[in-house]
Design brief:
Elements lengths: L5 E5 L3 H14 L4 E5 L2 H10 L4 E5 L7 H11 L4 E6 L4 H10 L3 E4 L4 H13 L13 H18 L3 E6 L4 E6 L6 H23 L7 E5 L3 E8 L3 E8 L7 H25 L23
Parallel strand pairs: 1-2, 1-3, 3-4, 4-5
Antiparallel strand pairs: 6-7, 6-10, 8-9, 9-10
Length: 291
């Protein structure tokens, strides 16, 4: 009989706990995910049950993430620790190294990267070549500026950047009535098909490709950003709406700019988070969890 892996997530914000927990269960429904809102409750859980991975926020009242991590090292020495913080500095990083934290992630998180690092902590994938890809606040600001500028230029009702697993990295505009995950999942298949068709013709998989659907009320556009990300636009049809050529021109420029930025971040990700003891991480995709 297969024994389910156990993950404990600690954060004093219930909304974050819900997002992180659901994101893990969506990928692996067999995971036993427990959430608590403070370090003392976490220790109670750890004394009652063994956990394979503990994910903890750093900035919590009463007991911060480092204090909790230190206590976990005594309660369950074999548990792998993942620490999340918006207040990273050299002192915190040094303490995390000392406590042998498996990964140290900075906010804002991207949900795909979070899921992958938990999977790596659980199953030990690619531990010899650690990498990290985290979005800084400045990177997110620049990303949202570009999406907002594109939305203005083409008069789109919404613009989204997703990965090919349908995780939303960033968005601007009105998306409440759009089944974003379903649309992104379907479009990713179309884009992958176009990429492979182009590769069969000339061997080049680095081109920008466009999938386009002309609808009764809205036009739908999707462009690949590299091979792992999608730029999706919804443009309301009307007498003053932007047409195909104009949208393609502006969207292609943004797609190329975004690819350059993603390449830069992924290049940084090829360096370890910590030297020596914590050189264990993952090749990750980018996707925004918190703005």
């Amino acid at each position: 009989m297969t024994i389910s892996k156990r993950v404990l997530i600690v954060d004093d914000e219930v909304s974050i706990l819900r997002v992180l927990s659901n994101s893990l269960k969506k990928v692996d429904p067999t995971l036993q995910v427990t959430t608590v809102t403070n370090g003392f409750a976490a220790l109670d859980r750890l004394l009652a049950h063994p956990y394979d991975v503990v994910v903890t926020d750093f900035n919590m009242a009463e007991m911060d993430g480092l204090e909790l991590a230190e206590a976990i090292r005594y309660a369950q020495p074999d548990a792998r620790l993942i620490m999340i913080t918006a207040f990273g500095n050299e002192v915190v990083e040094a303490e995390a190294r000392r406590i042998k934290v498996f990964r140290y992630l900075t906010k804002p998180l991207e949900i795909g990267a979070f899921r992958q690092v938990v999977q790596e902590a659980l199953y030990g994938q690619n531990l010899e070549q650690p990498t990290v890809a985290t979005w800084s606040e400045e990177n997110f600001r620049q990303l949202n500026e570009q999406l907002g500028r594109l939305r203005t230029d083409v008069k789109a009702s919404c613009v989204l950047l997703t990965d090919t697993s349908a995780n939303v990295i960033a968005k601007t505009g009105y998306t409440d009535e759009i089944p974003v995950e379903s649309v992104a999942s379907l479009l990713s298949g179309s884009i992958v098909t176009i990429i492979e068709a182009g590769r069969a013709i000339d061997g080049n998989a680095e081109c920008v490709h466009l999938a386009y659907r002309e609808g009764k009320n809205d036009d739908l556009y999707a462009l690949n950003v590299g091979q792992q990300y999608l730029l999706i636009l919804v443009v309301n049809r009307g007498p003053y709406s932007s047409r195909l050529g104009s949208v393609w021109y502006h969207a292609r420029q943004i797609a190329l700019n975004l690819k350059t930025k993603l390449d830069e971040i992924e290049s940084v990700a090829k360096n370890p988070v910590f030297p020596g003891q914590i050189e264990q991480a993952f090749d990750t995709e980018l996707n925004k969890l918190l703005a």
